[in-house]
Amino acid sequence: MSKTENTENITLPLVNGVQVLPLALSDLVNLLDDDCCQKWLFNVVRPGDLSGVCPLCSEPLPPGRLNGYQALKKTKCPACGKQFHATTNTIFHRMNLSPSELVVLAALLEVGVKQSVIADAIGRGSDTVQAWAAKLNGSKVRDI
Ligand SMILES: [Zn+2]
Question: Residues whose CB is under 5 A from ligand 1 (ion)?
Fold first, then answer.
């Protein structure tokens, strides 16, 4: 640490001329493993006994379809013949965020970070963060 820079009312330390805290925040999405975040999201929307069954007819999915289903890919149920994603009938259906972006957004919302700061951190607009804040704070995980 060699010098400091004033930002708003806080003096942030510089390390090799770089403000570490905002740099860590802006790199957070890229530092997360998207596959791990995807598995986390799957377990949120399809926990326990729901992890291996069709979300539309509740019939067990055959082993050959589970990998795609758990990877949040479109899956066809051999029992009912319908196509769906693991996020079907949840607030996460057709979300336009990567799993890593969603995890960062949700975690930062939970600890009270300003929505404009979250928008910068995930590289999205404030309107996106505002819409997700409303969904995550006012909705159940499953709409069904
Ligand atoms: Zn089905």
Answer: 54, 56-57, 77, 79-80
